[in-house]
Amino acid sequence: xTVQNPYVTGQPARGDDFVGRVRILNRVKxxxxxxxxxxxxxxxxxxxxxTSLLKKIQDTHRSDELLILYLNxxxxxxxxxxxxxxxxxxxxxRYCDIPQxxxxxxxxxxxxxxxxxYRLRKILILFDxxxxxxxxxNIDKTCAxxxxxxxxxxxxxxxxxxxxxxxxxxxxxxxxxxxxDSPSCNQLFKSCRKSTLHPLxxxxxxRILDMGDLKFKNENILNEFFNLTAGNPFFTQVxxxxxxxxxxVRQGEPIGIRLLWQCMRKALKAHGYGAAVxxxxxxxxxxxxxxxxSRLSRKKIDATPDAIKNALTKxxxxxxxxEIQKHLNKLEKEKFLNSDDLKIYLxxxxxxxxxxxxxxKKTDISNNKC
Length: 370
Ligand SMILES: Nc1ncnc2c1ncn2[C@@H]1O[C@H](COP(=O)(O)OP(=O)(O)OP(=O)(O)O)[C@@H](O)[C@H]1O
Ligand SMILES: [Mg+2]
Known about the structure:
- The radius of gyration is 23 Å and the shape is globular.
- 34% of the residues are buried.
- It has 3 domains: 176 residues, Rossmann fold; 78 residues; 80 residues, Winged helix-like DNA-binding domain superfamily/Winged helix DNA-binding domain (Arc Repressor Mutant, subunit A).
- The strands form 2 sheets. Strands 2-3-4-1-5 form a 5-stranded parallel beta sheet, with helices on both faces. Strands 6-7 form a two-stranded antiparallel ribbon.
- Helices cover 52% and strands 10% of the residues.
- It is α/β, with parallel strands linked by helices.
- Helix 10 runs parallel beside helix 13.
- The two termini are 38 Å apart.
- The structure holds adenosine-5'-triphosphate and magnesium ion.
- The site of adenosine-5'-triphosphate has 24 residues, from helix 2 and helix 11.
- Adenosine-5'-triphosphate binds next to helix 2 and helix 11.
């Protein structure tokens, strides 16, 4: 009999797979009901569960009175404000009963104003990955209209407030950063009610383990599991996944702390999760190099500069050794990679360490905060 691995890493948690987050969900519920507040900001480190939370909000609050739209802003990184607005308009027309003469209005504000006379439903727009709108490099791009979206949306929120248009926005971002030279982004962020996504509580982590049937009988092991993942939902899934894959768990042998540690190391090193989560922030060449290093390590081939060059050539990418070395040096300097004396490159657990430091600093993880 083959047993399917119940731990899925990478996908946002939906339905019964979603655990915890009671406090923040209550705050969002209040925000939805409160007519005075228009904007809400969820700040959460990479892989802390932002998308899962947004999907949960969408699944919980969708009703005849409330229309919820979900937009991943990563998709619109090179788009103009007009493109984003027409996408929002297109979806509003699709889900609301809006007369043709209103749908034809070109100006977005005019359109909203007229539409609000016909539509009784409130609108909540969930903007995921909103940080891409506020990053320095995006602001500097010639298609800086994207960055201007934050500015536009701030002005729009003033307009909708003055005209009593029932439109609310919830932004998910991995940082709360104010730019001295981009007051528009700042204004939008400042206007928001804010909540931070903390590590999952112990009980939430145990529920994830229980769901996958990965039962730890020993309380010390449970605590160790929680310490290792520091309540990060992603690392919880990754460690559970690796443990499940390991033979000893499948054969029902007791899980010792040593095995737990071995699996954690395996999960962090072999799969390059640290790099995977910050993928979008790397240059195209860096992404390609990291991709090939992860392929080599999966095949248990030492990722030396030579092996990397061969793998790249086989994959159809021509580049010089010097060029590769330049990228490797940069990636190593930025701690995405480690190398040993033999110049074998490995993914580093930088992201994980960062998370641990963050969790210890921000919350008392033994305090069962969620
Ligand atoms: N509340 C939760 N319950 C169970 N699993 C969760 C929960 N939140 C997140 N996860 C798991 O953690 C991982 C990361 O979740 P998610 O993609 O929602 O994070 P994110 O903050 O949006 O990440 P990114 O910064 O990459 O956009 C996924 O594998 C998901 O299944
Ligand atoms: Mg996400």
